[in-house]
Design goal:
Blueprint (H helix, E strand, L loop, with lengths): L7 E4 L5 H12 L3 E6 L3 H13 L3 E6 L7 H6 L8 E4 L13 H22 L8 E5 L11 H21 L5 E7 L14 H10 L8 H12 L10 E4 L7
Parallel strand pairs: 1-2, 1-4, 2-3, 4-5, 5-6, 6-7
This protein binds NADPH dihydro-nicotinamide-adenine-dinucleotide phosphate (NDP).
């Protein structure tokens, strides 16, 4: 696929997990990818190396999105045109009873405040017809005990819908990809735990745990030119989670 040749994409949290797969997929589609990471330089370098080994273009940019200057740092080296922004970086929160005000501020800073201001900063660099894609979660419609994390994803869903309306006159689409249970460091309870894996398999119509590539392919779909008429949507990408 070469549909994104000549385009530049920013993928936050692309050092690991879903973000890495998204960066690799958009690069395979032809985009030059800004591989953002928070602190894990070695993992970000692995993402860049995998992309360049496959013939793609990428470079890594470090910015701690939990810090007040995180978004400024991220944009120090990003220039126009920026055609695709994928807000993927996020952190999990403790259980409701254990969440301190600092935990709450941190999870909202990384998961909500940063995407909001990344988009604000990116828009002047984005041509008409660009793509904004936020990575949310199914935890907006099924209950988990880590309430602060779930609340951040609800905020992203609202952001996507309202922003799609605001940016429609520029033909910029804004969509929200909402993964189900997907193998990554965030789900370390699945690692070496066949019983947990079997439990997940039983909840999913398509009968397996999601892989980062399952999410990356969905991001590629909404990033493509063919998705020009899709905007303001929250797209569940979960293999049929809790269908009954
Ligand atoms: P991981 O924990 O595997 O990776 C998180 C990424 O975010 C890393 O690249 C990390 O960078 C970056 N990051 C974390 N904290 C910061 C920070 N303070 N500043 C900048 N970057 C930071 O997560 P996943 O790949 O599992 O999740 C990716 C997205 O998918 C998230 O939005 C998550 O909420 C969502 N999601 C995941 C699901 C799953 O089952 N895995 C299900 C539903 C949604 P570094 O490596 O440098 O630390």
């Amino acid at each position: 696929m070469t549909g994104l040749r000549g385009r530049t994409a920013l993928v936050t949290g692309a050092s690991r997990g879903l973000g890495r797969a998204i960066a690799q997929r958009l690069a395979a589609d032809g985009a030059s990818v800004v591989v953002h990471y928070g602190s894990n330089e070695a993992k970000a370098a692995e993402t860049v190396a995998a992309i360049t080994a496959a013939g793609g273009q990428a470079h890594a940019v470090r910015a701690d999105l939990g810090k007040p200057d995180g978004v400024d740092k991220l944009f120090e080296s990003i220039a126009a045109p920026l055609d695709i922004v994928v807000n993927n970086a996020a952190v999990f929160s403790p259980l409701f009873a254990d969440t301190t005000p600092d935990d709450f501020d941190q999870v909202f800073a990384v998961n909500v405040k940063s995407p909001f201001f990344i988009i604000q900063r990116a828009l002047p660099l984005m041509p008409d017809g660009s793509r904004i894609i936020n990575v949310s979660s199914g935890v907006t419609w099924f209950a988990i005990p880590e309430l602060a994390y779930a609340m951040t994803k609800g905020a992203l869903n609202v952001l996507g819908r309202a922003l799609a309306n605001t940016l429609g006159d520029r033909q910029i689409t804004v969509n929200t990809i909402s993964p189900g249970i997907t193998r990554s460091d965030m789900n370390d309870w699945l690692r070496d735990n066949p019983a947990a894996e079997q439990q997940v398999v039983g909840m999913v119509a398509l009968g397996r745990v999601g892989e980062p590539e399952d999410i990356a392919d969905a991001v590629s779909l909404v990033a493509s030119g063919d998705a020009r008429w899709i905007t303001g949507e929250v797209i569940e990408v979960n293999g049929g989670l809790f269908l009954g």
